[in-house]
Amino acid sequence: RKKQKRALLKHLLKDKSIESALVFSTTKRGANMIAKDLVEAGIEAEAIHGNKSQNARQRALNNFKEGKIRVLVATDIAARGIDVNELSHVFNYNLPDVPETYVHRIGRTGRAGAKGVAISFCDIEETKSLKAIEKLINKEIPVVEDHPYKIRHINEDEVRKENTKNNSNKKPSSKRQGGNWRYSNNRRKNNS
Q1: Where is the stretch described as Disordered (predicted)?
Q2: Max Cα separation, the chain?
Q3: What are the tens digits of pLDDT across the range 48-87?
């Protein structure tokens, strides 16, 4: 499943019309792995998080602002205070646990009346977070299926059944999940 998520991210970022993208990861390790994977695929990227020195974070941010790299991969804490004009895309590689954080993430694109695109990946473990986000924004985030990484859609009854079967404290087996994650594209125009 993680391989599919990374493959989809690389597929989307190969599109040169994406001038600048901020990719959010929930963990520092995840941010490093995503950035490394993108660089290996020929996509200019750097990670920024709390374990990096202030100099390293500032250098990565400057490289991003100056267009030396197209992609900045960040944790939420490291992304605080990042102010980038003309950010075209935000990718939620992992959905945040706190719904308000989602609003802050996607608010980084489409500033000053410009158009921006927020794309969110959601796997089976994040469906609860997705529902909380949709409730907060009072809008269903549409699923986009126009990509080469098709997956089987699951409904909430299947998730509950799987969770009960595997004991509520355990994650459903990856074999049964079969890489079930949700890719959504939230196009928005921010008028603030």
Answers
A1: 156-192
A2: 51
A3: 999 999 999 999 999 999 999 999 999 987 677 677 777 8
pTM, entire model? 0.76
Give me the DSSP letters along the chain: -HHHHHHHHHHHHT-TT---EEEE-SSHHHHHHHHHHHHHTT--EEEE-TTS-HHHHHHHHHHHHTTS-SEEEE-HHHHTT---TT--EEEESS--SSHHHHHHHHTTSSGGG-EEEEEEEEEGGGHHHHHHHHHHHTSPPPBP--SS-------HHHHHHHHHHT-TTSPPPHHHHSS-EEEEEEEEE---
Q: What tokens appear for 50 in the block?
A: 């709390």
Q: What residues does each domain of the chain span?
A: 2-189
Burial status of residue 142 (CB atoms within 10 A of its CB: 0-12, 13-18, 19 or more): exposed
- At position 2, the amino acid (one-letter code) is K
| CATH class held by domain 2-189 | alpha beta
